[in-house]
Every structure is written in C-alpha cells, then in structure tokens.
C-alpha cells in the first residue's frame, strides 16, 4: 500500500476535519527520474508527502555539498521549510519515477488554526528526523575513523 | 564566535541588546514577554556540563553568551567533538521534542550564560506562539545540516591537512558571516581540534605551524585569521 492510500488525517495524526481540509487542497505531482522537485533556498510551496518512488536530498552549506540521504514513500519532506521561514532547506531530486502529494502552505496554515496541536506534532516529527541524523552520522563518523585507522596500520 | 562579556550579560530577555542578532530569541513583543517569564538564566563555569549523552531530556538550553562543546562518545570510550555551539544556539531541542535521551554531551568551553527552560514549559510556549515554533523549526533545520556537514568533513577529506583546513574554513566563514576578514576565536585546545579533525594532537600542532610559516594563517593568542583561504581550500579538494 502506498502512502497516498492512507487517509491523510491518519498519517498526520490529526482529526478528520483538518485531514479533509488538507486532502481537499492537496495536489498529486508526478516526477521522472533525475527531475528536481525543488531547490534549496527557493520559496516552499507546501509540505510534501512522498507517495511512490525514491528521492534524494542534498544541500550546500559553507561551500560544501552534502548528501542528506534518500527519502521514500510515506515520508513527509521539508517540514523545516513548511514550519520555518518558508524557504527550502535542501534540494530534492527524483532518483526513480515517483509521485508525491503537495499540501499547500496556505491550507497547512488553515489546518494549524483548525487543529493547533498539528503544528507541534509536525515539529516533533522534524525533531525525530534530526535525532535520526545524529545516529546515522555518528555511526558514519565512527566508520570513517575506523577505516582511516585500519588504512594507516597497513 | 563571540567571547563572554559578563558586564554586558543581560538579567532578562526583555533588556537583552543582542536579542535581534539571535535567531531564536528575535521574537514579537508579545512572544518575547511570554518567553521572558519562562525558564531561568544561569551562569556556568568553564568545564560545566549542561547535559550528558544518554541523560533524559528535561530542559531546553538557549545559549546567551559563551561557547559550548557538543560531543559524543563511542562504545569504546572515544569522545568525538561534533560542533562548537555559539550564542543564539538552542541546545537539547531535538531530544526534548523527539522525546528521546540526549544524543550528545554539552560542556561549557568558557564561562557561559544560558537560559534554561523546562521541557513542558518550552513545549507549551511553542504551542502559544507560531513565531517561536517557526524559529524552533529553523533551529532544528540548522542542527540537521550541521550534523551532516560535520560527518562529511570527517568522512571524505583524504588527508589530515585537508580535514584541518576544512575545519578552519568552516569556523572562519561562520564567524565572518559574509565579512571579508576571516577571523575567529579558537577556544579549543590542539587536542580537541585534533579530535574534530580526526587526527592526532601532534599533527594539528605541526600543521598549524606549517600554515603559519606559509603565511596562510596568523595566530595571536586565541585569535586566528585566515589570510589565504584559497590555499586552505586547495588542500580540501
């Protein structure tokens, strides 16, 4: 079952009223492989829910290009932009053909008014993403250090 | 990376002259008045731990002045410094909102002033003010990119010189904030810099001396200026 097959209210853990509001305004967008869905720093049109396919996240920070990993079906992407200053914090590119559901910013704002806990729920989801990044990157750092130590000892 | 100036440290958030420079605290008057009423302002001595990895996340810490070392320890007991937090940074936010134990340890590198807010109080404050939750989202987003950035620096640069050069450039550009002069205060010891660059203390000392002899950097006390960033950039390629 794809992410889009779940009722939106269930995925976002919000009451049917807010879920229906978001479902009614949502747009399904289809992308071919290598297509750029949005670019870092561009104005954010809404919150995206990946329905099918896989997408790569990347960003540039202090002149360094960063690969932020792959996003898959069922994931909410760009919580930071939708909840933050409305600018994309990274670039999203389709790795394979896929589709996503876009929940427009204006409707998201209305949903926050209808069901205020939704904003905090999404903020918590963003925090969990940061927490997962710590785990992922810390393991990578330890891996890099171990590989370097092994290479030096050879 | 600003230093600590106790005589400039505010008693409360309403009278803080640095507020407009800090991402999180730059709030609307209504939200600011509310924010001023929550939490307590605390001073911490150098070496004081704000929280430790694995501790239950009970508070959010907003750094007003000073620098804080953020580190993590591996299973075999090796400590890795992930980043140096500077004024305006919100510490412990991801753990509090994700409802997980702290992923990292936060330790004062110099005397610090920190606003400490209890978890429930902070969450309720965010719920009351859209601008505060917006700033919290921006703070989380910045933390997210920093985690990946630090991981990449360590994982991809081939040489110790390249990793050290990348670290100096990152610190310099963050402190310069668009200004032409790339200058910052290096509060870490060579041992700690070595830890961040994934090399030994001896190598850091040798490389810094070499960069100085080549006139790529100048060092006066704890102040480091990058004179030829393009040379350091070449090392990172």
Describe the protein.
The complex is a heterodimer of chains A (154) and B (237). Chain A has 154 residues and is α+β, with helices and mostly antiparallel strands. Chain A has a single domain (3-153), classed as Jelly Rolls, CATH 2.60.120.10. Chain A is 43% helix and 29% strand. In chain A, the strands form two sheets. Chain A has a four-stranded antiparallel beta sheet. Chain A has a four-stranded antiparallel beta sheet with strand order 2-7-4-5, with no helix packed on it. In chain A, helix 2 (16-25) packs antiparallel against helix 4. Chain A starts with 7 loop residues before the first helix and ends with a helix. Chain B is α+β, with helices and mostly antiparallel strands and 237 residues long. Chain B folds into two domains: 6-155, Sandwich (Jelly Rolls); 158-236, Arc Repressor Mutant, subunit A (Orthogonal Bundle). Chain B is built from eight helices and eleven strands. Chain B has a four-stranded antiparallel beta sheet. In chain B, strands 2-7-4-5 form a four-stranded antiparallel beta sheet. Chain B has a three-stranded antiparallel beta sheet with strand order 9-11-10. In chain B, helix 3 (119-128) crosses helix 4 (130-156) and helix 6 packs across helix 7 (201-213). Chain B is globular, with a radius of gyration of 18 Å.
